[in-house]
């Protein structure tokens, strides 16, 4: 029937996500997406318009899930514990998959073939969403902060992006976490010994 999708959209977006995450936006073709999803190219074009439209649908779903999971990690009452848990989650996320797949948003940001403004807008939305989550958590801190909240949130997000790059060279989770912990200690200094 016209206007009704004849495929499982959730499953299709999940399978397309895996392809975009593994190969990157620019290196992914519509025939590969059709094969991976089991949906005919014509049906994908009818549903999403083109590869960019499909990517935007995939990324919206990915962003919603990632931000919700990140929010959960920030729930501990102790701010230092919450921030360290956030980085632990971010590191585990980039190292998941058969081969460590990195970060979908960072991988797409540096992809020359992903420079269209609608894609840049959703990528900025992801960064802004993370900054907002972190800033909100820092506003709840009872511990003294070494930086203004907005600066601290931006610095924390910037380290998540840099961690993705360093993980390609030094895939040791302990090293990555130690770097994150050092930044957390600078932003939320540990209490002085009595």
Characterise the protein shown here.
- This protein has 194 residues and is mainly α.
- It has a domain at 60-187: Tetracycline Repressor, domain 2 (Orthogonal Bundle), CATH 1.10.357.10.
- Helix content is 70%, strand content 0%.
- The protein contains nine helices and no strands.
- The radius of gyration is 19 Å and the shape is elongated.
- The protein starts with 8 loop residues before the first helix and ends in a 7-residue tail after the last helix.
- The model has no long low-confidence stretch (mean pLDDT 92).
What gyration radius follows from the Cα positions, in whole Å? 19 Å
Query: What is the strand content?
Result: under 5%
Low-confidence regions: none
Number of helices: 9
CATH-defined architecture of one domain: Orthogonal Bundle
Fraction of helical residues: 55-70%
* Amino-to-carboxy terminus distance: 73 Å
- Along the chain, the helix and strand elements come as HHHHHHHHH
The helix/strand class is: mainly alpha
The tally of strands reads 0
What is the CATH C-level name of one domain?
Mainly Alpha
Overall outline: elongated
CATH H-tier superfamily of one domain: Tetracycline Repressor, domain 2
Which sheet architecture does the biggest sheet show? none
Query: How is the CATH topology of one domain named?
Result: Tetracycline Repressor, domain 2
Mean pLDDT across the residues is 92
């Amino acid at each position: 029937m016209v206007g009704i999708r004849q495929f499982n959209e959730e499953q299709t977006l999940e399978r397309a996500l895996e392809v975009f995450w593994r190969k990157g936006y620019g290196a992914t073709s519509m025939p590969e997406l059709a094969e991976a999803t089991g949906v005919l190219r014509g049906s994908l074009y009818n549903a999403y318009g083109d590869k960019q439209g499909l990517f935007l649908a995939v990324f919206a779903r990915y962003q919603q899930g990632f931000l919700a999971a990140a929010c959960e990690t920030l729930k501990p009452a102790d701010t230092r514990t919450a921030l360290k848990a956030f980085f632990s989650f971010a590191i585990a996320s980039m190292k998941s998959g058969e081969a460590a797949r990195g970060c979908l948003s960072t991988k797409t940001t540096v992809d020359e073939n992903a420079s269209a403004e609608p894609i840049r807008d959703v990528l900025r939305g992801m960064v802004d969403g993370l900054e907002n989550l972190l800033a909100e958590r820092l506003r709840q801190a009872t511990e003294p902060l070494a930086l203004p909240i907005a600066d601290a949130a931006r610095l924390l997000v910037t380290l998540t992006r840099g961690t993705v790059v360093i993980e390609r060279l030094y895939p040791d989770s302990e090293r990555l976490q130690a770097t994150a912990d050092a930044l957390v200690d600078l932003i939320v200094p540990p209490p002085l010994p009595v």
